[in-house]
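Worked Example 4.2. Consider the chain below.
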Amino acid sequence: MLNEAQVISALAARDIVPDVTQRETIASLVALLGASGRYTKPGTVLAHQGVYCHGLPGRGKSLVVDTVFELAGCRKRRLHFHEFLREMNRRLVSEPRGDDRLGSVSRQWLDGVKLLCFDEFHVHDIADAFLMGRFLDTAIALGTRIVLTSNYAPDALLADPEFHERFLPTIEQIKRCFTVIHFDGARDYRFGGEEAPLPHFFAPLDAATGDALLQIFRRYEGDETLEPATVSAAGRPLVARAVGAALLWADFESLCVASRSHLDYLDLAEQWRGLILDKVHTEWLAGSHTLQRLIWLVDIFYDRKRTLFIASDRPIETALSGLEGAHDLSRTLSRLAEMQSRSYRSTLDGAERSADVAGIAAQTAAQPG
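Applying the procedure from the previous section yields the following structure tokens:
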């Protein structure tokens, strides 16, 4: 059976010493997994059937949860909230009509799953709220152990005053059935890490940036795929500058200014291990829909441990700081900081075909981005 010492040892192997809140979370998660080994009758609601970790970005919520998840020996699933919504909606489309289609699909989805982890749990939309409420009802009734990480306290879910009251029963259920832990540390652990040897963000949009992106693409794909192509993103065409086996090179206007959804980005993250996001004219970020699409893209690529190379007319973090009009921007800034650090573990690592890290780094070291 998993114990706290095993989790702390796994973190120590990554040079991480858990703080007080992280230790509290480890204890709660270990207790939750211990309880999952005991038989409960269907329909029995336990006092602590889940753990809900919330707080500002970069405080170590996902770090601790992912470490425990990797060590857990039961049948388990961990996924990003966007991925979950896509799966559920696909199943609902093919589910026969009935009195409780959502409950039926939820039971099918949960079949055999003993531990379920949602990363970046949020509810901003009333349709998602309805789906999530019924899903949690079903999961709790089945005895599934649930772990949620979120930037939002339970009471702050579905904050829209027009709909918030309709989600209150689910909020109260979370508070009643979950151990709720607030990560309130002052430090964002994603900032201040050692920079990766290969630069990831470039500004301005000049000839030097263009040459750096060309070298990056050649590094992973060579020259034979260096020509425009049209690919599919969730069944819709996307014109790309270049398409390789591991790396996609496309313009920001096509990816985030154009009308796209999180489904497009999920599909792209499943097809490629890295993305060069080119020609980011930062005045476009003033549009709330464009900004929200960029946030979705970063979230999904980060969750899948994909690599992002971004070329913008001015440093992307500077352009994003202080913007309003979209959900979860602080999390995006936190994740972008980690994605350009040495500690970020990308699935693109090891896919190099050509070029030299030091050469690219030397050529771009003087660039402010």
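The radius of gyration is 22 Å. Residues 201-364 form one domain. Compare this with Example 4.1 before moving on.
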